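[step 3/7] fold_predict: job queued, chain A
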Amino acid sequence: MKRASLCLCTAMLLGGSAAAHAEDDHADALQAVAAAAGAETRPTTRPAAGVRFTIVRQLDEPVIHKSSPGAEDNKYGFEGGSAIKLNGTYHLFTSEMAGDPWWTRMRFGHWTSRDAVRWQRVSTLYESSGDYTGKDPRAALWSPMPIFNEREDRWNLFYVAYRSAPDTPPESRRNYDGHIWRAISEAPGRDGIAGPYKDIGVVLKPGPDCKKWEGLQGTDSFFPYQVGRKWHALYGSAQTQYQPIPFWGVGLAEAPELAGPWKRCAGDEPVPIDSVFTENPIVCRLGDGTYIAVCDTFVPNGIAYSASRDSVHWSPASHIVLKQTETLWVKDLRTPLGLIDEGNDTFTLLYTAYATPAWKSYGCVGLITVRMEIAKSAKP
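[step 4/7] structure written:
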């Protein structure tokens, strides 16, 4: 999920409706919540397990925004999802905040581009019901993650479905009881990435096997990655039954196949990427076998990243922070959409962020290029 629970907490602390808050000054408000939760907001520049990323290109305008063709009926913009590159074409699967209720009336948009700068909207893959009574378990849909399944020769799409209802303080209920759904493309092969997709079922949900750190939000994110012949996944949850919300974290799940069955790994503690806030991790595997996860962070206009040599033990977060320029459109960076390997140790990194008033305070998609450096001592 995106940082819904965080902003709902912010709205309660600072006043105003959630919808109105969407077009407010998010950055200052989020820092107030971070302070209340005791979160560290200063960036960490040390390498993560010997891996460091630095920005070598930063676009000071969004690549998808409110005036982009295809965004005309998207009321609040974009937040979260993932991006990949397939046969020279970039594919973006993103959560579109299409209408009211805010963060409840959602849909998944599929966009493509040849250069990651000029984008065309291809289709709507799913739409949520927008139910705001708490009765519909698919009232709000978030975080579409396409993963190719070699065994099935089909794309799988993992995403989060929530119930949604007005808050009942101290509980945040706009997005709660999150379940992770798996769908498969009806078209075989890698060229079937555009779908359409067919739901297969729920692969992870709240229940008796939940860990003590998980909360009312349910399962708020899920990203699977292959480890040899089996699969691991980083999944998330947040303690949205409390105000201020004390913890957003991620845990580790495992399965013999991408199709499952999925189960939470043994142990009660979350993956220690950050002591207070880790959300929406997306994992890639480097050529040397190192796993890298990029995720949300409290650091202003930052992206957190963590490294793992064995896919299980993850380093404390390090940070990529946007360069502050007079023309930078970003007011509040929200969610990285994954690292795309371009060769020669460079990666395209798309992200969603709320814009400055000059860009109508809309949820837009931005772009940076980062270069990777690996410390000599960290190389195998």
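[step 5/7] annotate
The radius of gyration is 19 Å.
The CA atoms of residues 219 and 237 lie 5 Å apart.
exit 0
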